[in-house]
Amino acid sequence: MQRSAIVFYAACIAFALAVPLLGIYPVFMMQVLCFAMFACAFDLLLGFSGMLSFGHAAFFGAAAYGTGWLVTALKWGSFEAIVGGIVVAVLLGVVIGFLAIRRHGIYFAMITLALSQLVYFVCLEAPFTGGENGLQGVPRGNLLGLLSLNSDVTMYYFVLAVFLAVFLFIRRVVHSPFGQVLKAIRDNEPRATSLGYDINRYKLVAFILSAGLSGLAGSIKGLVLGFVTLSDVLQTTSGLVVLMALLGGTGTFFGPVIGAAVVITLQQYLSDEVGGWVTVIIGVIFVACVMSFRRGIVGEFEARIARRIG
Amino acid sequence: MLGLVNGSFYALLSLGLAIIFGLLGVVNFAHGAFYTLGSFAAAVGLSWLGIGYWPALILSPIAVGIVGIVAERLFLRHLYGLDPLYGLLLTFGLALIVEGTLFQQFGSSGLSYPVPQALRGAWNLGFMVLPIYRGWVIAASVAVCFTTWFLIERTSLGATLRAATENAPLLQAFGVNVPVIVAATYGTGVGLAAFAGVLSAPVIQVNPGMGQSLVIVVFAVVVIGGMGSILGSILSGLALGLIEGLTKVVYPEASNIVVFVIMVLVLILRPAGLFGKG
Fold this sequence. Notes:
heterodimer; A: 13 helices; 76% helix; 1% strand
C-alpha cells in the first residue's frame, strides 16, 4: 500500500473511533457502517467479479429476518443469532448463485432480481416474519454473555470492529490468488476457461461470499435498529446498494463506503426536508452517475491522481 | 380468464422489452414506469382535460412514446458502446424519477378509472360469465401484439429494423438513418407499455407502484421466453399469465410466485430460455 493510502486509512479509523466523542448520532453512524459493509460485499461481486446482482437485498433482508427471529422467538444470544443470519444468507446464496451464474450480464441481473422478489413474497407470507409489520422489538442482547450491547456506544464499537474485519477480509480475498482469478474471469471469461479454471465454481464461491457478508450486514442492522421490515428485502434496497457502489466507485474498495455514507446521509436528512422527493433525487443521482462519472467518486479521484503522477 | 388478462399485459410489456433489447441492447428497467405513466396519462387526461377512453388509448401511448424518445435522445444514446449494464442502471434511475414524481403528485392510493360505457356488462358464455371489458383487453392486446409481430417480421419496414439489429453500421452505409430508427423503436416499445397501462387502468386502481412489481414479473417472463424472439415473448407472456391465473384458482398463496418458480425450473432445464438463442 502507498504511504498516502496508509495515512488516509489511519485518518478514517481515527475519525471512526472518535465518532461518539464528536457528538455524531451513533445509531446513524451504525446504519452507515452496516450499509457500507453491505455495499462492499456487493462490490466484491460487481467490482471484482463483474457480476451485477440486482437482488442483493434478499441476502441482507433474509439474514436480518433470520437473526431477528432467532433472537426474539428462540431467545438466542446476539452472536449466535448473527451467525444464524449469515447461515441463512449463505444457504440462499448457494441456491440463487447456482441458478443465476447460468446466465451472463443483464440476464444475471434479471434473474437475481426475480429470485429476490421470490424471497420478498416468502417474507411477506411466511408465518414467522410478521407479514406487513415485520419483526418489532428485536433486542440487541449481549455478545456471548460477556458484553451487553444495549448502550449505543458499545454497539457502535462492535459494529465498527465488524466493519473493519469485513473490509480487511474483502481486501484479502481480492488480493489472494482466488481474487486474481475472479478478476481474470471478469476481464476475459473465455480466456480464463481456456487456462483451465472452473469458472462457474469461482463465480459461485464469490457469489456465496458476497451473499454471506451481505447477510452479516443485514443481521447487524436488524440488531442495531431493533426491527426488521419488508423494506429490507425489497428491490428498492437492492437498487440502493447498487447505487452506493456505483456512486462511490466500483472496484475501488473504499468507494462503496463513501457511496453508502452519501446515500444514507441523503436519505436521513433529505427526507426531513423534501419528503417523498428523496426517491426522485436518488433517481437523478443514478442517472447522473451513469451519464457522467461512471468511475464513481473514488474512481474519479484515483484517476485524477494517476493522471497527475503519470 | 383473469389470468389471460394479466397474460395480455405481460405479453405487451415483454414484447416491448424484446423489441427494445433487440435493437438497442438495453434492458429497459423503466418499462414498468412507462406502463404506469401510460395509465396515469389516461386517468389525468380524463379528469383534467375530459379526454375519454378511446382517444386516450391512442393519445397516451403517443405521449409516452415521445417522452421515451426524448429520454433515448438525451441519455440512452450515449451509452450504446458501453457495457449493457449501464443501460439497465440508467433506466432504473429513470424509473425512480418517474415513479417518485407520480407518487409525490398523486399519493400511493392513486386514481380510479371507470370502465368505458360501451364495454360495461358481461357476456354469458354458457360455461362462464365474461365481463366484456376483460374480453376486450385480451382481444385488443393480442391484436396489437400480432400486428407488431407482423410489422417486424413481414414488412419492409420490419426488414430495415431487423437489418439494424444485425448490422447497424452497414445499414447506415446504405443511407438509412439508423439513429432515427433506434429512437423510434424505443418510443414504440415504450408506447406499447403505455398502451398496456391504458388498458389496465379500468381493471385496477391506477397507482404509482403498479408498474414496479409488474416489471419484475415481466423480467422473469423474458428470462423464461428468451429475449431473442418476438413471437416467443408474446406467447410466453400469455402462457405465463394463464398459468398464474390457474394457480390463483387452485392454490392462491402461490400465485404471486409461480412465475418465478417456473423461471427457476427453466433455468435448470434449459438455461438459454425456451425460445432463446443463448
